[in-house]
Amino acid sequence: MIWFFQALLLLSQCWSFAVANPWDDNHQMMSAITSKVGPVGVRSHLFQAPNQAKASQSDQTIAVSDALVPEQPLILSYHNGPLLVGSNDTINMYVIFYGSFSRPQRGTLRAFFQSFAPSKQDSKSFPTVSKWWSVTRHYVDVHQSPVAKILRPAGELWDRKYSRGRQLNQSDIESLILGSTFSFDPHGIYLVLTAEDVSVKGFCTQFCGQHFYTFPKDAKGHQIPYAWVGNPAKQCPGLCSWPYSKPDEAFLGPDTPALVPPNGDAGIDGMIISLGDSLASIATDPYITGYYQGNGAEPLEAAGACKGAYGPNSFPGFPGELSIDSTTGSSFNVYGARKRKFLMPWIWNPSTLACSG
Ligand SMILES: *[C@@H]1O[C@H](CO)[C@@H](O)[C@H](O)[C@H]1NC(C)=O
Ligand SMILES: *[C@@H]1O[C@H](CO)[C@@H](O)[C@H](O)[C@H]1NC(C)=O
After folding, report:
1. Dihedral over alpha carbons 139, 130, 275, 36 (to 10 degrees)
2. Ligand 2 atom, smallest distance to 172 CA
3. With contact defined as beta carbons under 8 Å apart, do 34 and 294 qualify?
4. Distance 276 CA to ligand 2 centre (A)
5. Counting atoms of ligand 2 from 1, which one is nearest the CA of 167?
6. Domain encompassing residue 130
7. 169 in contact with ligand 2, CB cutoff 6 A
């Protein structure tokens, strides 16, 4: 229950910012404020945790992929604000590693960020990260412009000495970005990846990650979207590394064994699932005026709307039918750069009104 009330509190803050929409006439006034945020959380990867079951009684979304209950189609409404259409169809990603990350961990995360570029693999029949991303092209803004086709890693920093300690809150995350040496990029997404020994307010109790936006002083009134995602390996693998860790015992579904992670690191492979969720949510709802569904208590965005679904025939506790690597036995659903394999959450498709991957 504590979780539920905290979530309400957080999201009601979010709501007041959504009302004072910086996209409208308040633009000048809002942009004078150094930094305000509209937080939206990447929830646990599990289909339905008990607290969320209570929280979601008033909305219909959870049951949509539950074949037993015929439901009206899931709709994420468009709230007439901007989407991330990028520049020349490209969004630049700026990444801050915060704390300890091993070389293999950084290698896996970098390969993921490089996986959004078009490649020769795309013409082959197997699924790729960039083909997965193409579902976001069905989201269009008021000018009928779609979300940018390409995400491109444009900068990386490593705060290996934990400059703000090991216990962070939302202000710390924002300060890390605003205080970084990155220049402001109106077509950028800024990401903070926190190491397994860093706690972030809300991490593992409410969220696997969160996205926000802020107004840098020198940004000429532009807003920049940013997000953090934590490494859950030690703090809540059963929530934020599922299905690569056994589900948390608070989960009501079947007690299924953990799947083998494709990059050999349940924490990092779990982070990549949350990053996929975050990136899709940021691009389609950067300022909480894009596509989401919700009664105000818990907006559901592109990937959150398909929670727990990674393949066909998913149901609560079962991620769906996935590909299996015959050598390692790992489970995945997309190929990425450098022959890597990843698991991407299914995304709601506005053209079919269904989740797909
Ligand atoms: C725009 O993107 C295309 C292909 O993605 C590239 O060939 C072209 O050079 C880019 N143009 C600019 C101005 O960056
Ligand atoms: C975040 O933590 C810092 C100190 O670590 C504190 O000064 C600040 O008030 C906190 N902000 C919020 C929003 O809790």
Report:
1. -40
2. 1
3. no
4. 28
5. 5
6. 41-64+72-356
7. yes
